[in-house]
């Protein structure tokens, strides 16, 4: 531990500078306009892996963005950790809400503000630096493999193919991922579950062209109004989702399990204050921790139609659209839920409009075991580094690939995230506390140490 | 009539060329980015009035865009016609739906395609050319005043002030406006009423920032979902508007009046085919003609919130907004309806969001008399020019200033429109039939003739 701290202390500024370099690439995978930047980011990551001492480093092409692979095999008889992360980031808009430029990282009050600071550049880069530390101090106790992809924010479609085609190369005993949050530095936690995802886009078409709302208003269905009616009907008065069959496969937890889950620190007044809302909203009969952890949800991620510019335009639009995603919990199946949504939405659309439902991407929910060697190693590492045993929590987000690792590679995942829920992931002013960044670099070598020892 | 036709025939190409020049100005009053173009349009109109023989032509400044005034007083004892029109146009977007550029007028199948072709450049310019014709042929039978404004598409706020401040200058016996439609060249019609307007913008705010839809989804109200619920609730299952008091002042027509109204040519199959819809939508208990003519409506003109770019972004937006307008009928009051909407919308907003309602602009509904000298003159003019007596109809659109003319100047209006409902007003591919343009120029001098004779 002393040695770890010493190395981190001596390299603090460089660790930060390198992360800043990485954050300056606008590697937005969703927007084809940033293609060149995404590709440059992959090369940068590969270079840094090589510098840190990784071997067989390769920028592996896929049908989409490449996957950066690298490894260090110290002894074939020792256990192997597969580190997963992603170098792509969410779009940065709405840009006008950023206090400083999303791709020019800026420190304010001990926090790094930049798109990707926490999700996931800041977090996967901790592993690169922890690896460097173990290499340079001769303390790497097990084999390590890196797989850093560039399409996590758009569904990891090509990673799925890559994993299937590279089973041998990716052989490992555990997947280690830092792409989630902990409660706080004071209340460290480990996520033991992730929600799945079904993401769709709907388009409602009324008349075949935009119409004058005076000449035609009142006589022809307005697709924006109809879209609102359709979306409004997707939740009932108790905020239950109304899609038939939606809850059929939802795993229900026992009273005891729910009680344990609700023991995690949670202060409703602070939660509301942080979000700036007077009242919380959610499915009746469940707490906030349950609503974001063990219950499925349906959210409108975007909606648009008609005239959205300045001033007033009296148009009756031809089309209105929305992006809608559902978070899923064990044992819901993404493909099944996507189909249920599609069928339902098409069925409830009235005859005076036509609707199309397009799939974006999906992912399966997962629960990670808390009795595995890997979980125990993570627990011990955090306890030593933070001075406190981590609380097991259920994460609301999704890392669709985790279920795939389990299915294809037959290995479980440990979700050792060092972010915070308040890090504004996917939002303007995304941040990562510098303290968490260094704490992560210090904790990761301990994980490897205990994982090797316990194996 | 022979003389009129001869003059039009001899000047056909020039009449078209001049209109094209006028249509090339992107005089979009709603978008401040086009300010320079709007101002140039005013100067162009003033120049053309002067060339046609108008006197005291002035580009009158206002707090917004100027009003172009010009007059020709032939004899103070003769009646005076005040011609009103507007040189501003609606925004042209969505641009990608235009077959040819909105500000490069193009002829296809005998129609002029351009933003403003019908609304209202093509239509008010007929009056400028008809005036030229009467001047050049020495047949102007009465006094004429022109008032062409540049803010009709954004609520005519400054025209209201101008009219109040220029009562003496604007003194006239009738207001003549071509800014409406007729059924067809085969079934000429005259509008005898216009709907009023209340235009508002609503903004629903949930959390104080965009959130990760996984981390927070299900635990905090999504303003897009709430906006949909609020909008959905504004119409009941019979498509009646649910705002309390909304229908209180609505003038109901007698069975006989409704029957007469429904005698106008209307073919539902053709109407649906033209719009490309399988089924019409509207307030139960009323026909299409009634729904667009004598019943008030509420339309979403635009809606937006969250991520609307390419691909998928799993965001729970902080805000969602909509532009909503209501068309009003006699005896509804725009200010009253605006207030009712505001009160209702604020009242129904649940506690977990905050809403703001901003007024755009409004206008009062009007009914024009069918027993006046002016109406009879218009009827005779059309009968002579088209060979058929015009059918009186009720227009669904709004020209907010008409009610003001009545109130401030104490004079009634004749709505002698030569457009068609299918001219794509406010839509991509706005058009004006060349035949209608020339027919208008031929009919207008007859109106002046009969108005002078009957007065």
TrEMBL record, chains A, B:
Database matches in InterPro entries: Cyt/Met_Dipeptidase, Peptidase_M20, Peptidase_M20_dimer
Single GO MF descriptor: peptidase activity
SUPFAM superfamilies per the UniProt record, alphabetical: Zn-dependent exopeptidases
Name of protein: Dipeptidase
NCBIfam families noted in UniProt: PRK07907.1 (NF005914), PRK08201.1 (NF006053), PRK09104.1 (NF006579)
GO-annotated biological processes: proteolysis
Domain Peptidase M20 dimerisation per the UniProt entry, residue ranges: 193-352
UniProt keyword annotations, A-Z: Hydrolase, Metal-binding, Protease
């Amino acid at each position: 531990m002393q040695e770890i701290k010493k190395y981190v202390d001596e390299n603090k500024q460089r660790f930060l500078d390198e992360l800043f370099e990485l954050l300056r690439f606008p590697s937005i995978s969703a927007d084809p306009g940033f293609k060149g930047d995404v590709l440059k980011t992959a090369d940068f990551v590969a270079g840094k892996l090589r510098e840190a001492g990784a071997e067989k480093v390769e920028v592996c092409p896929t049908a989409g963005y490449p996957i950066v692979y690298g490894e260090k095999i110290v002894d074939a008889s020792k256990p192997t950790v597969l580190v997963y992360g992603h170098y792509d980031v969410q779009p940065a808009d709405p840009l006008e809400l950023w206090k400083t430029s999303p791709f020019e990282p800026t420190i304010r009050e001990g926090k790094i503000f930049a798109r990707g600071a926490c999700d996931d550049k800041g977090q996967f880069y901790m592993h690169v630096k922890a690896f460097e530390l173990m290499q340079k101090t001769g303390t790497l106790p097990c084999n390590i493999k890196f797989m850093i992809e560039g399409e996590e924010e758009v569904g990891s479609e090509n990673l799925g193919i890559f994993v299937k085609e590279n089973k041998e190369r990716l052989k490992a005993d555990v997947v280690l991922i830092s792409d989630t949050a902990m409660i706080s530095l004071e209340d460290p936690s480990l996520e033991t579950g992730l929600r799945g995802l079904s993401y769709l886009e709907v388009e409602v078409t009324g008349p075949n062209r935009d119409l004058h709302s005076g000449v035609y208003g009142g006589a022809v269905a307005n697709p924006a109004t109809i879209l609102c009616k359709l979306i409004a009907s997707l939740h009932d008065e108790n905020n239950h989702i109304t899609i038939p069959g939606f809850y059929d496969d939802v795993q229900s937890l026992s009273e005891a399990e729910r009680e344990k889950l609700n023991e995690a620190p949670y202060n409703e007044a602070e939660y509301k204050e942080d979000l700036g809302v007077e009242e919380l909203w959610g499915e009746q009969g469940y707490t906030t921790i349950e609503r974001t952890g063990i219950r499925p949800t349906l959210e409108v991620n975007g909606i648009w139609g008609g005239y959205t510019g300045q001033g007033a335009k009296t148009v009756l639009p031809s089309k209105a659209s929305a992006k809608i995603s559902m978070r899923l919990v064990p044992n819901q199946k993404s493909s099944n839920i996507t189909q249920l949504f599609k069928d339902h939405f098409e069925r409830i659309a009235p005859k005076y409009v036509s609707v199309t439902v397009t799939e974006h991407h999906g992912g399966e929910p997962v629960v990670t075991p808390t009795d595995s060697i890997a979980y125990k190693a993570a627990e011990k590492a955090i306890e030593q580094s933070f001075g406190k045993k981590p609380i097991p929590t259920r994460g609301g987000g999704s890392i669709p690939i985790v279920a795939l690792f389990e299915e294809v590679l037959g290995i479980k995942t440990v979700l050792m995230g060092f972010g915070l829920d308040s890090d504004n992931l996917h939002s303007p002013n995304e941040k990562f506390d510098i303290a968490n960044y260094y704490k992560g670099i210090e904790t990761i070598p301990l994980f490897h140490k205990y994982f090797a020892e316990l194996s």
